[in-house]
Design brief:
Blueprint: H1 2-20, E1 26-35, E2 50-54, E3 57-59, E4 61-66, E5 71-78, H2 86-96, E6 100-107, E7 111-118, H3 121-129, H4 143-155, E8 161-168, H5 176-189, E9 192-198, H6 205-214, E10 218-221, H7 228-239, E11 242-248, E12 258-262, E13 268-270
Parallel strand pairs: 5-6, 5-8, 8-9, 9-10
Antiparallel strand pairs: 1-11, 1-13, 2-3, 2-12, 4-11, 6-7
Helix pairs in contact: 2-7, 4-5, 5-6
Length: 278
């Protein structure tokens, strides 16, 4: 009887030790890019050049390397049916081909997917063929908000890097509830939202603030200039992303806000300021 009690106490103590053992730290991965004063990609940053703060608290950078995770790009084309963006999208795909999988949707005025995610050249050529002139499509500046939200939710299913690229000839009319839903969907997906729009259009909260919150960029272009070189800046940023990792100790609550800065003079970081909940 005494031997049984002794063994029970040993097993009980061992169980308490296992219960009290700390869980592993949470590792956060953030994708970002960096450019110099001329907008050229900076490709030689190290951990020593960077400071990361989550929720205002600094954490040591565990590692920073060129990003190699699969890249998923959802392209949303709002061209009012003119087909004017097709050449620029073709050049974007050519610049990034072999590095990404693409889904393409056109607004008519609701978003219609012309191809789901693919890296197949024939499928992409067929999708580009469906982006030509399609007649005069009524402008509905609320539909782009729903299109961004749906694209972000779809991207949540994909593992790796995620990006949304919007080309807009209509702009955005913000409705508060829809905008909140879209911005939260972008945050949850971890995707960068990138926007090319025609000069003179209004950008609401989604197309205007979404890139800042997600680490994307906004490019504007006159309607009478070639759009390919403008969109190429977005392609270049995606091709030169970094993967930064840092650890959150066990027991510390994850925060939504991120501040990533660099000590390198003349270097601008394109990094998210809002993080997914997990």
């Amino acid at each position: 009887m005494k031997r049984i009690l002794t063994l029970s106490m040993v097993f009980l103590a061992f169980g308490l030790v296992l219960t009290a053992a700390p869980r592993p730290d949470v590792t956060r991965t953030v994708y970002f890019s960096a450019v110099d004063g001329k907008g050229v990609a900076v490709t030689d940053l190290t951990a020593a050049d960077l400071t990361v703060k989550e929720g205002g608290k600094a954490y040591p950078v565990a590692d920073v390397q060129p990003a190699t995770a699969p890249l998923w790009v959802s392209i949303l084309v709002d061209d009012r049916g003119t087909g004017a963006f097709a050449p620029a999208v073709s050049q974007f795909i050519q610049a990034t081909f072999g590095h990404a999988q693409y889904a393409i949707s056109v607004l008519s005025p609701q978003a219609i997917k012309v191809t789901d995610f693919t890296g197949d050249a024939d499928a992409l050529r067929a999708a580009l063929g469906r982006m030509g002139q399609r007649g005069n499509i009524p402008t509905d500046t609320e539909q782009i908000i729903s299109a961004v939200s749906d694209a972000a939710k779809d991207l949540q299913k994909r593992k790796g890097r995620r990006a949304i690229v919007v080309l807009s000839a209509s702009g955005e009319k913000t409705l508060s509830d829809l905008a909140d839903e879209a911005l939260n969907a972008v945050k949850s997906s971890g995707a960068s939202l990138n926007v090319l729009y025609i000069t003179g259009l209004d950008l609401g909260r989604v197309l205007g603030d979404g890139p800042k919150q997600s680490g994307g960029i906004v490019q504007q272009a006159s309607g009478n200039v070639a759009l390919g070189p403008v969109l190429a800046k977005i392609a270049d940023n995606l091709l030169h992303q970094y993967a930064l990792t840092y650890n959150i100790p066990d027991g510390v609550k994850l925060k939504e806000t991120l501040a990533l800065t660099t000590s390198r003079n003349g270097v601008t970081l394109l990094a998210p300021s809002r993080l997914p909940d997990k």
